[in-house]
Known about the structure:
Chain A is mainly α. In chain A, about 80% of the residues lie in helices and about 0% in strands. In chain B, about 75% of the residues lie in helices and about 0% in strands.
Amino acid sequence: MLLRLGALATLAFIYVPLVVIGxxxxxxxxxxxxPIEDFSTRWxxxxxxxxxxxxxIVLSVVAALGATAIALVLGTLASLAVSRYEFFGRDTISFxxxxxxxxPGIITGLSLQATFQNAGIAFGLLTIIVGHATFCIVVVYNNxxxxxxxxxxxxxxxxxxxxxxxxxxxxxVTFPALRTPLLxxxxxxxxxxxxxxxxxxxxxxxxxxxxxxxxxNLSRPRELPIVNVVALVLILASTIPVYVAQRLSRDPxxxxxxxxxxxxxxx
Amino acid sequence: xxxxxxxxxxxxxAAFWETNEFTAEVVHTFTLDNFRTLWERDVYRDVAWRTIxxxxxxxxxxxxxxxxxxxxxxxxxxxxxxxxxxVAVVMPLWASYLVKTYAWRxxxxxxxxxxxxxxxxxxxxxxxxxxGLWLVFTYLWLPFMILPLYAGLERxxxxxxxxxxxxxxxxxxxxxxxxxxxxxPALVAGSLFTFSLTLGDYIAPGLITSEQFIGTVxxxxxxxxxxxxxxxxxxxxxxxxxxxxxxxxxxxxENL
Lengths: 267, 256
């Protein structure tokens, strides 16, 4: 009984803020007082017509797609190398790949900013993508590696014994085994990149991704009603990856584990 | 990867450079002055100490809040309810970090829901104070504590609890002597997240309070004194490396 109460209290703690901000999205007033006196959907129209938001969403999607694509290629290659081959420095690599999620994002951001500046690279889409790719790679790598450890290398050896060349083996044996973890990994990578703000502040220059747009507008009281609308849309959108991950794995912990491992990256 | 490691290296190196006092340009000469400044100036020590205390308190609060629900999911709930609860716990992890912090900013405001709810019983909400920030951090990192704890609790053999009860231990004693030691590595695994995430964060402190923390200081001095900022990052880096080594000793890595 006491246990159930405790569990319920924690659950309420988790969801009350999300519900409150959801209600504010329908607040007619510009001021953010509670209780809400007038409800209206007028800010939805304003938000929908706001070009800065639209540009920010497009930039966020493009950056997330770019970072996910890089992560898919490099993360898969790294996981294959670490799981299937013995080579000098293998343990070091498997440790170093994890660094971007083990260290606070401010350190990643600061060091990337200093490097780009020293190298004379202009801040923009490219630097945003590179910044995001650092932690997206980890996510894909982790997911792929976990699967590769469970699928024995002997399948690949059997394939080679039966006369397949290495491309055929990858195409017909390795890749089918990796499809689900790669999908789950890219889903998470995309979501993390789309939401990233800590590193992006350092690498975006004058460009505004959606989180940067939110961050910039939090200090403008007149814009808060629109921020509320965007916030509710983002909360609702976050159920999509949860649903897809559920469908992918049928096992919620499988969706939880990479989320827990990866979400450290965005901070 | 090369870009990342290279950048990290440059940052570590920058900690040993100095800033020209007149031009504010970074001069590439080797010096330990940055570390001496950090050690001798009270501000930096106070801020570091405040941040570490905050990280510890957040970790404790998260452990206390996470335990009942993790225990309920792992040992009491039906498979269906467990599934739903897991989704309910995971969902906020995918929701935007900024949105969650902003939601708390609204709730903690003077005219916000917390003051409104506490007013009838004659209390005031914490407002934009260090306590308020503690609540926000506790909220943000809670799922990171629940998930490893749940996994750890689920692995405990029911027969161990029965054996303890058969041997005459009351539930409280069983909890202290059997359950707690068995889930301790999982608890450490969860604390890795709550601790490191609190140490490095600069956005939530900036949005919630005017009090300074390691992250906000690094962020604000990086413009004029990059070497000093770089040297200051050594504080969270060192703490996390030591923490990781201890955690590995305690077997927390199997629980990540």
